[in-house]
Amino acid sequence: MTAALRLKPKNRAAALLAHAREHRYAIGAFNAVNLETAEAIVQAAELENAPVILQVSENAARYAGLEHLTAVCQSLREHASIPVILHFDHAETLESALTAVALGYDMVMLEGGDLDLDGNAKRLKLLSKTAHALGVAVEGEFEVTQKGEREATHLSASALEDFMKVSGVDAVAVDIGTSHKQTEKTAMLNIPHLRDLAHQTAAPLVLHGSSGATPEDLRIAIHEGISKVNVATELMLEFTRGVREQLSDPKLYDARKYLGYAREVMTQRVRTLIQNFGSSGQVL
Ligand SMILES: [Zn+2]
């Protein structure tokens, strides 16, 4: 057994998220798509002395190359002064989720929208068994957070308790009114539904599509049981704003100038989000 394996605490991701739920803060789960965005996320967390979830989605892996982007994130995790949970987000198949486990991710989310709830829970059980044996946490998708304009797809909260028992997952994604890829903060959160869900399980609840929610609403949701807040679109907007600002100078040609500036701009935004989620200074 290598030193790295021997030292890896058992399911550290689950322990960190359980602490967040218990103490009513959330760990920010920020999406990295390249070197600069991954660096911005880890640097912001270090400046805030906060645990952080560095996320690679299956989509981002397709863009940057799964092995390459994973290696960048693993290197940042190893050298960070704060706990970095490396999370594989939105795995579309059991096979890709298991690949992420094998690659050394600390946590994996497997989508469930292609199956009914029972089938979803049973497939997650297969993943949980393998992942847990290797100290890897699993996020299941109880309710699907849609893309773009949406219709409510809430399930009965009472089904959650059974779903958690059968699936064995460590954290669970719920739908409380947000959508993926929202560029405006217009989401109306369904807090009563969140309360019902939180009543069914002590497990950390996960919010997808949080870019569409206001900071105030996010704080309420965190207080009611959301312990992992996924942020992608808002950071993409910020990073791109930084690039655009720099590229207004037609003489600029050095990619390090505008990418470095965008990285700095994104770092500041991640810090603000971490502060709002209440995870600053929460390094255990
Ligand atoms: Zn998502």
TrEMBL record:
Q: From which domain of life does this come?
A: Bacteria
Q: Which residues form the signal peptide?
A: none
Obligatory cofactor(s): Zn(2+)
Q: Which InterPro entries match?
A: Aldolase_TIM, Class_II_FBP_aldolase, FBA_II
Where are the active-site residues found?
89 (proton donor)
Q: Which residues bind Zn(2+) 2?
A: 141
Biological process GO annotation list? Answer: carbohydrate metabolic process
Annotated residues that bind Zn(2+) 1 are located at: 90, 180, 208
Q: How is the cofactor bound?
A: Binds 2 Zn(2+) ions per subunit. One is catalytic and the other provides a structural contribution.
Query: Is Metal-binding a UniProt keyword of this protein?
Result: yes
Going by the UniProt record, its keywords in alphabetical order are: Metal-binding, Zinc
Q: Name one GO molecular function term.
A: zinc ion binding
Locate the transmembrane regions by residue number: none
Name listed for the protein in its UniProt record: Fructose-bisphosphate aldolase
Q: What is the lineage of its organism?
A: Bacteria, Thermotogati, Deinococcota, Deinococci, Deinococcales
